[in-house]
Specification:
The complex is a heterotrimer.
Chain A lengths: L1 H24 L20 E2 L7 E2 L9 E6 L4 H15 L3 E6 L13 H15 L3 E6 L4 H5 L7 E5 L5 E6 L4 H17 L1
Parallel strand pairs in A: 3-4, 4-5
Antiparallel strand pairs in A: 1-2, 3-6, 6-7
Chain B lengths: L1 H14 L6 E2 L6 H13 L16 H15 L4 H12 L15 H27 L2 H12 L2
Helix pairs in contact in B: 2-3
Chain C lengths: L1 H29 L2 H5 L1 H24 L6 H6 L6 H6 L5 H21 L6 H25 L24 H30 L5 H31 L10 H26 L3 H24 L12 H25 L14 H31 L9 H24 L7 H24 L6 H27 L6 H7 L2 H26 L1 E7 L4 E4 L2 E12 L4 E11 L2 E13 L4 E5 L1 E4 L3 E10 L5 E9 L2 H19 L5 H12 L6 H4 L2
Antiparallel strand pairs in C: 1-9, 2-3, 3-4, 4-5, 5-6, 7-8, 8-9
Helix pairs in contact in C: 1-3, 1-7, 3-6, 6-7, 6-8, 7-8, 7-12, 8-9, 8-11, 9-10, 9-19, 10-11, 10-13, 11-12, 13-14, 14-16, 15-16, 16-18, 18-19
Classes of the chains: A alpha/beta, B mainly alpha, C alpha+beta.
Amino acid sequence: MKKVLIFLLPLGFFVLVALFLFQGLFSDPRARDSSLVNKPLPDFNLPDLMQPQVEYTPEVFKGQVSLLNVWGVWCITCAIELPYLTELSDNGVRIVGLYYDQDTDPDFGTKTVGTIQQEVNAKLGQLGNPYAFNIFDTYRDYSLDLGVTGAPETFLIDKKGVIRMHHIGDVNPRVWKNKIGPVYQRLMSE
Amino acid sequence: MKRFLICVALILAASSFTHASEEKYQFEDPAKRELFLELTQELRCPMCQNQNIADSDAMIANDLRRKVYQLLKQGKSREEVVVYMKSRYGDFVSYKPPVTPATLWLWLLPVIFVLGAVVFIVQSRKKAAVKADPEALAKAEVLLEKD
Amino acid sequence: MLAELGNFALVIALMMSMLLAIYPMWGAYKNHAQMMALAKPLAIGLFVFTLFAYIVLTRAFIENDFSLAYVAHHSNSLLPWYYRVTAVWGGHEGSFLLWVLIFSLWTVAVALFSRAIPIQMVARVLAVLGLVAMGFYLFILLASNPFDRLLPFYPVDGRDLNPLLQDFGMIIHPPMLYMGYVGFSVAFAFAIAALISGKLDSTWARWSRPWTIAAWCFLTVGIALGSWWAYYELGWGGWWFWDPSENAAFMPWLVGTALMHSLAVTEKRKVFKSWTVLLAISAFSMSLLGTFLIRSGILVSVHAFATDPTRGLFILGILAVTVGGSLLLYALRAPQLKSTGRYELFSREVLLIGNNVLLTAATIVVFLGTLLPLVHKELGLGSISIGAPFFNQMFVFLIVPFVFLMGLGPLSRWKRQSPTALVRQLLIAFGISLSAAVLVIFSYDQAAYMAALGMTLSFWILLTTLQEVMQRIEGNKGELSVVAKLRALTPSHWGMVLGHVGFAVTLIGITLVSNYEQESDVRMSTGDSINIGGYDFVFNGVEELKGPNYGGHVGLVDVFEDGDFVSALAAEKRFYPVQRTTMTEAGIDSGLTRDLFVALGERLDNGDWALRIYVKPFVNWIWAGAFIMGIGGIFSIADRRYRMAKVAKFKSLTSNGKTIEPATEAN
């Protein structure tokens, strides 16, 4: 009998693997948990995109629930979500932009802040401006601190300045209804 | 001596061209350059299909390379750089899996298998030696001798 | 209209596979000769109709029939004709049709070349193959039909073939790989047929040996081609990435290598029977698992087939039925297996099983490394990555005992080897290997322990192989010249020698390129030069590039050594407008002892260019070794022992009423 068990071992192993493979079929291999959720926003000291003399720190998130939206004019999906974000902001959701540009080498970039401002104004004028203000992530350091891998990505931040959700990809009515919206409502009533 | 001459010849040959080009990420200390190459191969580009940040052309890979360079320039150690990246992008960002009760099997299972197999082979040899029927064995030997 | 005929041909092929699965099996059970005789024509029919469907699809590609969804997605009217032919396997549906075509090719080969094997056995083997084929034809027709139309609104032009695949390496890599993958189905079918019949003497091992070696050859060459392609096409200068797609091909190779050796022991010595059966099942299971991993998209890999959960589910179903069923059968039948051969603890048998254990451990390492991230995530423990650092570490540990046994095995005798008789020989081999390795390492500027280890291992294999050949010559007491004695060695013996030498050659390449590769990431303007690894690379600027379906830039780099011109390299950066993809075609000067490799990066703001330059010592040896291994396999198959005449003689002997164990008369 003991001998038979040994010969059943490969079958048992296979069944176990097959179960995991089956489960794996129904989950997105690229979905990942952010390691910053439930942690306070990392420290920063960055200028406003439109008025570089104005500087922001995490203090600007204290006291109200906000969405921090990472975006850029070069990003196609960002343009798709802009109208819906504008709708949300018209309904009273506070949305702060974290803007970064695509010049691959910020140290030797060709774009000046002036050209970036023009491009941003043109884009927002065309698709709607959901942003209370835009923080300019000059060297893309801050998006790196946030664990951003691309644009668009959106963070939900509570009244204490703690990150409560990290969403990768665009915000659309479905995402808002199923994922971000309910948490947002809860945080508002906290 | 010969090697020295070759070196001189190389230097002369190199200097005969107009001017030398520069590396994108420069280090004074060759050990740090080595560490930079190692780290960029060990860190995973978080948004790519499956590439390390040395191989990827994605913007995020570019940013992470630059960050690794800056951190090394600041005198950070290998572990500090890895911790910096993991605190932002999670364990996923390193191709070296963390050692946890769940991942320990990566190392344990192959070892258990090899040890188990060795025990099994030795054991079954002993049993066979006891059980063997001398007459059948003799017959088998005769057949096998024909090989 | 033709496409509908192709579809119809696949339906007929499906019906034939069903008949093939049922009739011969039933015939073998009832000992009904006519039903068993149906196996061969059905196998031929299966192949002919699949081939017809395949030709129809190829014709649609050549004639740019964009009303077929598959053609529209993977071809373009600007694509050169030869790429249109190979674009047939450029996507999921077509490559699966190729998979099935190759499967039917192996099936028909078994039907045609097994005249010497008892009809019951052939009938069962073909029925098992038919059963497996049935799943695949159902899959093609229900979930991945390449003949689906885009009617009535079809595009004027196609979306083009993925530029990564527009390349010579890609023309031959997938068919080779599939030949290997699918080829293990034959050994699988023999093992299952033997389990079903209950006749698990070692005859099945001898029959399936040439098939296994053939599949292994194709897989070896296929993997090498894939690695070579990645090396020059991806522009990163790497040759192995431990990507799931590579691991998916590597696992069947490891198990197949173990199987090849284990079959030899089972055939000659009638031991390890149940282990060999398990390996035969595992090799094909690994092929199926690889197919599932790549086509279901459950792992993040550089290999991207458009993914679809229903397809993954379907293949998982096939996997569950095929592998689960055969392992169940194994669990029921294997306990009855008795090994009759006798052997001591130190004997060739034990050394070969030791090699099997290590190859299996290596498979476990690759398997865990590939699948544990998925399990980890499904258990809710978060995402982790397992990559090169882990695999390299484990393989360094595994390869030392593996290579040690690899040198010892061929020198040892079956049944019993006196350890003292070998010690002197081994000490000599070890001494020379170590000294040779140290000499090689000293010719490089810096010493590295890993390099010394790798070279010692490589020389160990080469020297023990040489000793083994000499031992054989001395063992030949005839009054013959050395050349004549060498010629007296059997082809299958030469096969083993070449296989082991090839492995050593690959190991040398891996060792030297991993330890002594030089690389540099530079920005250069026209006229700049840089010295890397003793070579001066002079950048002569960038020119415009115009191809049939792409544009781009080509960076021109001249290479000098000590002021002497060595080579002019052209590193291309191509842009394919239809797929909006940029591709790197590295400029490579290949040589026996080193490759010079230049890849063009992006243009920088001041007009400079970023370039990636490598000097890679002995990198070609990696693939050369794999080809030597492949040639070794061909030698083994060519061995007369496998030819029909002798087996036929055996058959006539047994039919006279005498029973002779076939394994004993052959060696």
